[in-house]
Design a protein that fits this description.
2 copies of one chain form a homodimer.
Chain A (H helix, E strand, L loop, with lengths): L4 H8 L3 H8 L8 H14 L5 H8 L4 E6 L7 H14 L3 E6 L4 H13 L4 E5 L8 H6 L3 E4 L10 E4 L1 H14 L5 E5 L5 H16 L9 E3 L4 H13 L6 E4 L2 H13 L9 E3 L5 H5 L6 E3 L2 H21 L15 E3 L2 E3 L19 H6 L5
Parallel strand pairs in A: 1-2, 1-3, 3-4, 4-5, 5-11, 6-7, 6-8, 8-9
Antiparallel strand pairs in A: 10-12
Helix pairs in contact in A: 1-2, 1-3, 2-3, 5-13, 8-9, 10-11
Chain A binds a DNA duplex (30 and 30 nucleotides) through helix 2 and helix 4.
Chain lengths: 366, 366
Amino acid sequence: MPITLEQLAQVAGVSVSTASRALGKSNHAVNAETRKRILTLAEQLGYRPNLMARGLKTERTYTIGLILDSILSPFSPHIIHGIQDHLKEFNYFSIVINTDSNPEVESHAVYDLISRSIDGIIFVESWMPDAHPILDVENKPYVFVHRLFGRIPHNSVCVDEQHGARLVVEHLIALEHHRIAFINGLPGWYASEQRLLGYRETLAAHEIPFDSEIVLEGDWGVQDGYRAAEQFLQLSERPTAIFAANDLMALGAMYAIQDAGLGVPDDIAVVGYDDRDIASFARPTLTTVRMPCYEMGQAAAKLVLNMLDTSRASGGASADDFLQTQEPIKIPGELIVRESSDRTKRHWVQPRSHNMLMHLMNRRRP
Amino acid sequence: MPITLEQLAQVAGVSVSTASRALGKSNHAVNAETRKRILTLAEQLGYRPNLMARGLKTERTYTIGLILDSILSPFSPHIIHGIQDHLKEFNYFSIVINTDSNPEVESHAVYDLISRSIDGIIFVESWMPDAHPILDVENKPYVFVHRLFGRIPHNSVCVDEQHGARLVVEHLIALEHHRIAFINGLPGWYASEQRLLGYRETLAAHEIPFDSEIVLEGDWGVQDGYRAAEQFLQLSERPTAIFAANDLMALGAMYAIQDAGLGVPDDIAVVGYDDRDIASFARPTLTTVRMPCYEMGQAAAKLVLNMLDTSRASGGASADDFLQTQEPIKIPGELIVRESSDRTKRHWVQPRSHNMLMHLMNRRRP
DNA sequence: AGCGATTTTGAAAACGTTTGCAGGCGATTA
DNA sequence: TAATCGCCTGCAAACGTTTTCAAAATCGCT
């Protein structure tokens, strides 16, 4: 057991109250000498404050709950990474709960987190409805990050998908492509809608007419990309470039093109979206838009801590202190140009930083 | 704020003690009728016990600390998944800390977790030395899971790598391959050593002589696999199959073979290890050994809870109650046969269950 | 010395639980 | 009928902090 504040105070020859004040960053006056003595003593004895006891008194646990739709999503580890890195700066920790897309589990999780009197909640890729009744009544701040589907609720952080699509189309146009096919995701998805918008908008800006013949929808899988590309190849006037709304469909498109005896990017350029691992491992390596997951995580953490601050500043009295209905924060992605669009690029397969092997290679050997 | 036990007791017209006893699964006698009344009342009023207060009294927080070497490793999400699913059954939650391979952060994390009086710690893919002094003195159980490097410490869960390699070689031999090259990882890695052992052992069991000419080492990257395969192809008597110690090197090997104008698996079969996403997205899809990450996580969670139980049963007196120096628990992987070794297999790219897109496809649409 | 102002300390009351102890009450037993 | 025993309940003391309030010490002045 760690030693208690009382014991520490005892050996320091002071009362618990002074010991407490010496350790805390309280502005309460305490003799400089005494403080130093207590501090060094605490160090020596390895005193660790009991956060449960403290939390009990202060109603602050320095803990944020993370409710994940699925920890196995390719994005969530990056989002968590961003969240935690930001929280760490303010000495917050996070307890993470994975719901596996089960709404019952999700709602249960909220209660469990309240039971642990966490200070706030971040929903990651959640399906939870906009406002959560219990959280409102408990007056806890909560934030959504990377919601994939439906309406983007208040207090949430998402990707500027429209901007990402714009980057892609601008890139292709700069490479002299004028007939750019688009394999979109299914309708109803935030990403599909926004990316289509960006696609159309950019074409229009360059006075390229929108042609519904070269716009198809797929269910996000490799097969869908393959089939869509097959269709494009049969057109009398076939596209010179294909933009797929995610990397998997882009991969499928590349396979279809190669199976037809054509080359990527020489005959048809292909661009994906997401920058998943496969984008750097495919042949040719895939031009894509990197999802700003880390940055989204950071932004979400920042948002929830802000809400906490303002709520506390105002005395935390009113239930909707931090329910300022603000616009979603949109984080822009980044175009990663690789071989599938630009024949001058010659990467050897470049793992991303989060690729474990690369990352292990950088550290000391036994 | 959730209502407190005292308030609940008040409206129920009983004392806090009886209310507490009615709710807890304590074997202490309490009138059946009263208990029911309290229980329904608690339900109605949405009573949630304050776990901080409870923990303060009981020295039990129902929280396990997870210290990750890197949350971005391709394995850790699966390991966490397994851990949490097991913990959930016993109402345990976990607070996870990502160290990004920084030993200082790691050691700091231990102190922070102790401050939060967690019940135990699981080190995931950690580099932390075998025994952790602070944890021993604090008498908290801790467990290692999927340590990648060096000696496997006590109380740890790892992969039965030798068995995995055996599966691969047996599979290739069953397919009439007698000259099986091996691209191993770097020495010093637990995986490299064990997989080599499995490789040699299985060859020996089938009376195939070990030929060092067809065994190379790589640094786990795609390039390494590519170069190794190039070397094999130049041999006068070239191998008919290549076993690479991970999927990335296997992918590189396939690329080299294809660049040489040969076919996989028709000219040379290729097998990888890990079953990362790319294994199912590559063309041909890659035969590989699935890492039993989920199962390892479960085992680790089970182990740490067991240690907790035995420690409590024995009164938690002695510091090494649960430091029973036991052998590491080895979890076997599973061979996944795909196109790169077996020409009869015809998958369309089959995402694994943890592939987000597959997983999203299975749920309701808006 | 005395007095107010200021700095520094300590006692004690919380925070929301669990739990040992003691008492009340009805039923069983002698 | 009195003593005993079980079951049920409540009081109060913890658990380790923070924080209010008041008292004590120090200081600067006259």
